[in-house]
Design goal:
Number of strands: 9
Number of helices: 15
Strand order of the largest sheet: 1-3-2
Length: 327
């Protein structure tokens, strides 16, 4: 899935970020886009001096910032939620547990400090900060989902699209959610499932055991509510959950690859040219092997991907990976 998504981004033109400021009056947006495309072509042709000159020109004349990672441009440099740096630094609190505002601020500061330590590859310090969050604030971190929560049996209410609830109903739901938690801890799973099902039927409540959250959903059982789907998955066994995730990623990856392998702009002339090329031998169509210098310019993840494609081991240092690809 990640390979297909990355390929989709790499193959598209640079697009304007939704959070971009407006171009100055009188500036032709089409001409700006053409100039940005010319820079992309220069980069692809490895004419890096020209690409840098165009980037500087766009910044100086229009205050345009280019983000090569997400292939977007923005007047003023704001990429909003698409900003990869902001996404990597953003953590979300999940679940319940009472914390004073000062404690929440301290936790956020420790998480930000840990993020910096990991970026600096100071993993010992990052581990020490993780342990401090656990020992001092009883906080658990989920690096994969970039989420944190207090290690507590309390479930938090998350406002949703379902019906509004009175204080009396909220109190009753909280009581039953706590009763279900106690039943699970006592291994009374049938009782816990019955409470969950009654809450869904009576109040349209979905419970997410992974994030320790609950909310009402507008159309229970329709499969249209993301929270309800995540709640359902949180109650599967780890094996079943991993199976579902792998199938969904595989299906989406196959769909993306199919979309971006097809070229909607192909013409009849292109088809005739393809027929002529098809008459050539497969050997002619095979790309030339990469040199040691070419391989050295690749990142370790790309080198490992190439090794996987040819069925070779992916362990070792960068020099080992290159030597294995050249063998």
């Amino acid at each position: 899935l990640k390979r297909a998504t990355d390929a989709a981004v790499r193959n598209r033109s640079y697009v304007r970020a939704a959070s971009s400021l407006e171009l100055a009056p009188g500036v032709d947006a089409a001409a700006v886009q053409t100039r940005i495309d010319e820079r992309a072509a220069a980069k692809a042709a490895r004419i890096f001096d020209l690409a840098d000159d165009i980037r500087a020109e766009l910044k100086e004349e229009h205050d345009i910032v280019l983000n090569d990672e997400i292939r977007m441009w923005s007047v003023g440099g704001d990429f909003g939620d698409d900003d990869p740096v902001a996404r990597r630094n953003a953590w979300t609190r999940r679940g319940g547990g009472d914390l004073a505002p000062e404690a929440i601020d301290a936790i956020k500061n420790l998480i930000a400090e840990r993020n910096k330590a990991k970026r600096d590859r100071n993993f010992r310090k990052a581990d020490e900060l993780r342990d401090a969050l656990r020992d001092d604030y009883n906080v658990r971190l989920d690096d994969r989902g970039r989420e944190w929560r207090v290690n507590s049996d309390d479930y938090a209410y998350v406002p949703g699209d379902g019906a509004s609830l009175s204080e009396e109903v909220m109190g009753e739901i909280r009581r039953r959610v706590a009763e279900r938690t106690a039943a699970k801890k006592n291994k009374e799973y049938e009782k816990a499932d019955a409470i969950r099902d009654n809450l869904a039927e009576e109040f349209q409540v979905a419970i997410d055991d992974r994030t320790r959250e609950w909310r009402t959903v507008a159309a229970p059982g329709s499969g249209m509510d993301t929270f309800e789907e995540e709640a359902r998955r949180s109650q599967l066994s780890p094996y079943r959950r991993e199976q579902e995730i792998e199938k969904k990623e595989s299906d989406l990856g196959a769909a993306l690859e199919q979309v971006f392998q097809s070229d909607p702009l192909t013409t009849a002339a292109d088809d005739r040219a393809d027929d002529a090329v098809g008459a050539e031998s497969e050997a002619d169509a095979t790309p030339a092997p990469m040199s040691a210098e070419d391989l050295a310019s690749l990142t370790i993840p790309l080198l490992k991907e190439k090794l996987r494609e040819v069925g070779k081991p992916v362990s070792g240092r960068k020099a080992d990976l290159i030597e294995r690809l050249l063998a």
